[in-house]
Write a structure and sequence with these properties.
This protein is about 40% helix and about 20% strand. By secondary structure, the chain is α/β, with parallel strands linked by helices. The chain starts with a strand and ends with a helix.
Length: about 400
């Protein structure tokens, strides 16, 4: 089945679109990447998304952006299919994560009811309507309804791609937020340990964006950080962040490591009279690397052997961050997805293509050991396209209705 996966991550830089060929069932599924591309947001759109993510936008703005992003995601689907020279009529399914606006995995008690919540926009009805392809979207809420945190969701794909009978591996994804998946050799899906470790590119990007007054969105290649020195006191204060000490399962987002922490860093830098912005950026980059290493040493190596660390996501393009991570994890071998002939940035989009495929097959697609859910569930809401219903050779529709 040819499936398109769509996501805009916590970095809020654009729509990642992956066209994959999926076959098999459950953990025996196989994926082949046919095409991948990122379609950037405009600077104005990024700013508006940051505003609504900070809870400062209006309801009418959020409603507007929901449908506008639906159109942008649809265009991303058409463009990635065109890149692969595949017509949309050949695409059987789309899986869309959307754009996270708010993620609140910690329960808030209201009138005796514990409420967790999450909100992603990028209206999937628009995607199904524009493309004519059955679309599965809004994956996180079902896991949250089952007592989970709705994240991390990529470990299922990490398991399929990287589990090994003889090597224990830690898969690190550095997006806006960093998360890890521990795959112990010879163990199954139920033995996975996966959780968010803290900031990925988010804190670094936030500092650069404010300094450049929006003219730059990232420290490209880690060049600015490479010209600075880590400030010991600022680094120490950052490493005392309470999220690092919290035991898994745990997940986080922009509400913790976004603008609020960026402003705190600026205040601390002023207090410590750090005059060079390169020093501040080097320190923030070191914090990102060491927060990942800290989680590895505190929560992973205490559970079992570890032979390899495999890093993916946009953070792999930051040479300074990768160097600091290698030093912090020494003597462990640190590899990238590219060492396995895989595209680092494509993994998350591929994951949502896989989740859509599993949902249509009536296969549970969360990992309770990673999210904290009480049991496996089928995540994703199905919006039929013109190719619905499917003829899959077994009574999938009947199974879905029973579930």
């Amino acid at each position: 089945m040819k499936v398109i996966g769509l996501i805009s991550g916590t970095s809020t830089d654009g729509v990642d679109a992956a066209l994959v060929e999926v076959s098999g069932k459950g953990v025996e599924s196989q994926l082949k990447l046919l095409a991948f591309e990122t379609y950037p947001y405009s600077q104005d759109l990024r700013r508006r998304l940051m505003v609504v993510s900070a809870g400062q936008g209006t309801v009418s703005e959020m409603s507007h952006l929901n449908f506008y992003l639906g159109d942008l995601f649809s265009r991303g689907a058409f463009q990635v299919a065109k890149k692969a020279r595949v017509s949309m009529d050949e695409v059987e399914l789309i899986g869309s994560h959307g754009q996270t606006i708010m993620h609140c995995p910690q329960p808030v008690t209201e009138r005796g009811i514990k409420v967790r919540s999450t909100l992603q926009i990028g209206e999937p009805s628009v995607i199904a309507q524009r493309t004519g392809v059955t679309t599965v979207a809004d994956f996180r809420p079902r896991d949250i309804a089952a007592g989970g945190q709705g994240a991390p969701l990529t470990p299922y794909l990490h398991y399929i791609l990287f589990h090994d009978q003889s090597k224990s591996r830690l898969v690190v994804n550095i997006g806006g937020i960093s998360n890890v998946t521990y795959l112990r050799s010879g163990k199954g899906l139920q033995d996975i340990l996966a959780f968010d470790t803290g900031p990925g590119n988010m804190l670094i990007d936030g500092m650069v964006e404010i300094w450049s007054k929006g003219r730059q969105q990232m420290d490209k290649g880690g060049k600015m950080a490479s010209q600075g020195s880590v400030h010991p006191r600022l680094f120490r204060d950052l490493m005392r962040h309470p999220f690092l000490k919290k035991r898994p399962p745990k997940t986080t987002g922009r509400e913790v490591f976004g603008r609020i922490l960026v402003e705190q860093v600026f205040k601390l830098a002023k207090r410590y009279r750090i005059r060079k912005k390169e020093d501040v950026l080097a320190t923030v980059t070191a914090f990102t690397a060491h927060s990942i290493a800290y989680s590895c040493k505190r929560y992973i190596v205490t559970r079992g052997p570890l032979d390899q660390v495999i890093v993916g996501g946009g953070g792999t393009r930051n040479a300074t961050l990768m160097k600091m991570l290698q030093e912090a994890l020494a003597p462990l071998q640190v590899l990238t997805f590219e060492d396995f002939q895989m595209e680092s940035k494509a993994i998350e989009a591929m994951a949502f293509a896989l989740m859509a495929y599993q949902a249509i097959m009536a296969e549970p697609n969360n990992i309770p050991a990673a999210t904290g859910a009480t049991h496996p569930v089928i995540m994703g809401k199905i919006l039929p396209g013109k190719n619905w219903p499917y003829d899959l050779g077994h009574n999938v529709i009947e199974k879905l209705w029973k579930i």
